[in-house]
Please model this.
Amino acid sequence: MANRNRSQPRDAARNGEPEAAAADPIQMDVKGDGRDQTTGRFKPGWRGGKGNPVHRRMAELRKAALEAVTAEDIQAIFRHLVIRANKHCDTAAAMIVLRYVIGKPPEITDPEAEPDEPAEEQDQELLAGSRP
Model:
């Protein structure tokens, strides 16, 4: 098969293909990656990919899990965790309960760190009363 320039249109009649298939790009069935060979853009009629099958499966599993668990189930689990944290001194159970009830603790800032220059200048101006 001879190499030809990709930017040149293919002669459909010479290859035994009907010319009508190449006439209307919207009606043609786009195959391959759906990109135009010359511009790299998606051709009209390209529907896109199938998506990530792992994400699709994870969404199905999450949906099934949410349908199987009720609010009473969650309350029972948390009651069990609280009992384990209190009576059995289970620190892992205590961490889970505290993270869900109180939330993640804020990031600790170093009190000895030097403040930012602009904030310090604004504080000085406010204390001096020089601000209009």
Residues 8 and 38 are 9 Å apart (CA to CA). Confidence is low (pLDDT under 50) at residues 19-30.
